[in-house]
Amino acid sequence: MKKTLVVILSLMLLLPSTSVFAAGDQPSAWSKDTIQRGIDLGIVPERLQSNYADPITREEFAELLVNVAFKKLEMVERSYEWTKEMVLEKVTIDQPFEDTDLDHVKLAYIIGSVNGTSDTTFSPDTYITREQAAQMLMNTIHKSSILLYATKEEMGYSDYNQIGEWAKPAVSAAYTLGLMQGYNGQFMPRKHITREQAIVTIIRVLDYAKYITLQLRGDITAYAWFDDLTYNVGKDYVYVSYEDKGELSHSNKELRNIWFRTPLTSSASYDHEQAIFLYAFHSNLLNTYYTWISQAALKGEGAKVDYGYMIVETFTEDYILKFTLKDNPGYFNALAGHVYGYPKVEIDPKPIN
User: Fold this and answer.
1) Binning pLDDT at 50, 70 and 90, where does residue 289 land?
2) How far is 22 from 25, CA to CA, in rounded Å?
3) Distance (Å, rounded) from C-alpha 272 to C-alpha 251?
4) Shortest CA distance to 199 belongs to which of 22, 76, 47?
5) Do residues 310 and 325 lie in contact, with contact meaning Cβ atoms separated by under 8 Å?
């Protein structure tokens, strides 16, 4: 009998992992395989593995977004990458929500997926609509994805005029990326998105969207190996602080290598704070092309520059860098050219005296 049990258990271990959907609680045939894949990858938490036809709440969708974002970071396979725990340790939300303390909601806010329903509330149990889901998706992945806005004619939605003006950039971009494309010629913007629809959409993010570096508030690139930096975030800003721990940090070692390999600084004495300005946020500051911040940093001076979608200040009284995001329609994008807005405008930074 014991030998029989051992054989049975051995055979079970060789079988592919499967999830048993509860009787009467099966997802639709069109979504079943994709949902199973999301479960196997650890993107779909156990609490969302049922009631698939139910509408999904704000905090449930936030958890799916956070899980897929960190899964994509994990797939990059860098030697030094963010974990959820590291982000929560290094990033402070200056005005936390009063109606939820869930870590995945904090993370969703930090990476820019979600905003509050007011300055102090998140409304975690509120159901979200399809246009809200589109906006949350694009809030998360716009900077690193090849973002193009489909036209009204290209989308061909008969209910296009029902889409809120605030949601049209997200709906258009989500269509182009193949994340959300409607049904029977309609987008149904104000219809609640169900759990199974949300899960399938999130797996499309895994397959079609690019997310290779953590983005604070959706726009500001933050690499984990800058281990001596901390961040404060609010709805429209990211502030960066440098913590001198009195020891040679990983950040210091890496930036020294970059400093002495780069013509701009190779002949200068190494200065760690200047190196942070010059190289830690290059994808945002574009300081190889626009030199105001670089020139000021090499002199140990502060600078203030308007990038169209944000204003950047360096060497302020309390922070080494301040990114203040503007309330423009549309998104900042790097892969489709350094552009922002809806319709897109090329970035043309200008110093502010």
Assistant:
1) confident
2) 5
3) 9
4) 47
5) yes
Token couple for 293 = 């911040």
The encoded tokens of residue 211 equal 């997310």
d(CA 193, CA 216): 26
- Kindly report, residue by residue over 147-199, the tens digit of the pLDDT: 899 999 999 999 999 999 999 999 999 999 999 989 999 999 999 999 999 99
Q: Residue 265 and residue 289: Cα distance in Å, rounded?
A: 15
Strand ranges (E), 280-335: 304-306, 310-314, 321-325
Q: What is the pTM of this model?
A: 0.92
* Whole-number Cα distances in Å, 98 to 125, 159, 233, 266: 14, 36, 16, 49
- Name the phi and psi angles at 133, rounded to 5: -65, -40
Collapsing DSSP states into helix, strand and coil, what is residue 296? helix
Looking up tokens 């709906």 gives 171
CB 134 within 8 Å of CB 167: yes
